[in-house]
TrEMBL record:
It holds the Pfam family MFS_1. The chain crosses the membrane at residues 12-32, 52-73, 85-107, 113-131, 143-165, 171-191, 203-221, 227-248, 268-291, 303-322, 334-352, 358-384, 404-422, 434-455. It comes from the Bacteria. The keyword Transmembrane helix applies. PROSITE patterns: MFS (PS50850). Its main location: membrane. PANTHER family: EXPORT PROTEIN (PTHR42718:SF49), MAJOR FACILITATOR SUPERFAMILY MULTIDRUG TRANSPORTER MFSC (PTHR42718). It is found in: Cell membrane. Keywords: Antibiotic resistance, Membrane, Transmembrane, Transmembrane helix. Residues 15-461 form the Major facilitator superfamily (MFS) profile domain. This is MFS transporter. It is a multi-pass membrane protein. Gene3D superfamilies: MFS general substrate transporter like domains, Multidrug resistance protein D. It comes from Streptomyces gamaensis.
Length: 478
């Protein structure tokens, strides 16, 4: 029990509640189209490529804007970026609800991604400022991580239930309304925080990273139709040039958006690698579980959403419990262990076909859910402590950018594997074989990620080391 006065704890509790509500909303919105993508595609006249854009477009806004949003939050005010993100989410959700074509809907989802980036980066930054290192911060980041699993659990079920009684547009009108309420709550209750010294705006870094990541994800989405298509190759080359330019600019900038010296920090590398592998090997694979359940077992969108909820629901339950391991098992070790459990769970899903009972999903989804919950909670704490206190929003943004870039890579990778599965035997057989291959790849990637994170060992600081301004605070928080 903390001895901090009640009047000091109340703002921190309000910050925790608002940050968790915003994160839950972002993940509900992120996963809303997953079980209903075929309904949306039919209503909007989308082809196979359009369906992929419906699923993946929000990741462009998220991955491209997260580090930008984190930097702006640290330098110009985390509450200010939070409310701007919430307002933008209201407007973008309305665009999705009013969309007459696939192109307009995709634009709305990209903007939703940018708004979500502002909410995610600023909310975890607000938590890092409100809660000092220790058990209270572990509890706060554990609850924040639980909202990731909770949103993934609720989003598909929410949209699958709603589409039974209302047009698909209703889901996005409700998201707009709830976004407005959360934004007003934040405006009334959050306390502003920012770095004591404002850094110069890194315009070159902002442009190159946003454009480079956007083109990379666009190439991954379009690559499903063939990796040798001229426009896909052009996107990939342009993305690589821009991202190389970003690294060149950051090395020379007086106030870089991403301090590349952080890559020498094992905790920061572990956070980025863990988040990237979570996106590729876990989220990418799980995105196709509802589609697989519908095509292989003939489930309805609601039934397939409930199958996915076995994974995401247990993730929601497990994340807050991870704080009980603080002091006995470090956050880096928790990430490694959680990824390993995810990998075992995904491998346990191999062998499901049209003759399988629905409950054959349960053991693998349950293991992957428990592992994901531990990973989500530990990654949140690791991202905050791996950077100096005045850069907490940027640290959270870098970790989340890795996660959503990874999810885009994962979705494209799983789509490519499914496309390569042997033809013949009917759609159900082709999907089951493809998902078995995908399960092997995803499980192996998760286990490999666990090994890589475990190898990011942190060395104790020598007593005679010279204290460098900006690094001392980082070492103490670590």
């Amino acid at each position: 029990m903390t001895n901090e006065p009640v009047e000091h704890r109340s703002p921190a509790r309000a910050t925790l509640a608002i940050s968790c509500a915003a994160t839950l909303l972002v993940l509900i919105n992120f996963t809303t189209p997953i079980p209903t993508v075929q309904v949306l595609a039919k209503a909007l006249g989308s082809g196979p490529s359009g369906q992929t854009w419906i699923l993946g477009s929000i990741s462009i806004g998220l991955a491209a804007c997260l580090m930008v949003a984190g930097t702006l939050a640290d330098d110009h005010g985390r509450k200010r970026i939070f409310t701007a993100g919430g307002t933008l989410l209201v407007l973008a959700s309305a665009v999705c609800a009013l969309a007459p074509t696939t192109a307009v809907f995709v634009v709305g989802r990209v903007v939703q991604g940018g708004a979500s980036a502002a909410l995610l980066a600023s909310s975890l930054g607000l938590l890092g400022h409100a809660f000092p290192p220790g058990p209270e911060r572990a509890r706060a980041t554990g609850l924040w991580g639980a909202m990731v699993g909770g949103g993934i659990a609720i989003g598909p079920v929410y949209s699958a239930l709603l589409i039974k009684v209302a047009p698909w547009q209703t889901a996005y009108w409700i998201i707009a309304a709830v976004s407005a309420l959360v934004t007003l709550w934040g405006l009334a209750s959050l306390t502003e925080s920012r770095a004591e010294q404002r850094r110069r705006f890194d315009a070159g870094g902002v442009v190159t990273v946003a454009a480079g990541v956007s083109l990379l994800i666009a190439a991954l989405i379009e690559g499903r139709g063939g990796w040798t298509q001229p426009h896909v190759l052009a996107f990939l080359v342009a993305a690589l040039v821009l991202l190389a330019g970003f690294v060149w600019i950051e090395k020379r900038a007086a106030d870089p958006m991403l301090d590349l010296q952080l890559l020498r920090r094992p905790a920061f590398v572990a956070s980025a690698v863990g988040a990237l592998v979570t996106g590729i090997g876990v989220i990418g694979f799980m995105t196709y579980i509802p589609i697989s359940a519908q095509k292989v077992l003939g489930m309805s969108p609601l039934q397939s959403a409930l199958v996915l909820a076995i994974w995401s629901g247990l993730s929601f339950v497990a994340a807050p419990q991870a704080r009980r391991m603080v002091g006995r098992v470090g956050d880096r070790q928790q990430v490694a262990a959680g990824l390993a459990v995810c990998g075992v769970g995904e491998l346990a899903l191999i062998g499901i076909d049209s003759a399988s009972p629905w409950w054959q999903f349960v053991p693998g989804m349950a293991l992957a859910g428990i592992g994901s919950g531990v990973v989500n909670a530990a990654l949140a704490g690791l991202a905050v402590r791996s950077v100096p206190a005045h850069r907490v929003a940027m640290g959270s943004a870098a970790g989340n950018a890795s996660r959503y870039l990874g999810s885009s890579i994962g979705v494209a990778l799983m789509a490519a594997i499914l496309a390569l599965s042997p033809r013949g035997g009917g759609p159900a057989h082709e999907m089951s074989v493809g998902m078995n291959y995908a399960g092997v790849v995803a499980g192996a990637l998760a286990v490999l990620g666990a090994v890589l994170v475990a190898l990011c060992r942190e060395r104790p600081r020598p007593r005679h080391a010279v204290e460098v301004p900006g690094e001392l605070e980082l070492e103490r928080s670590a």
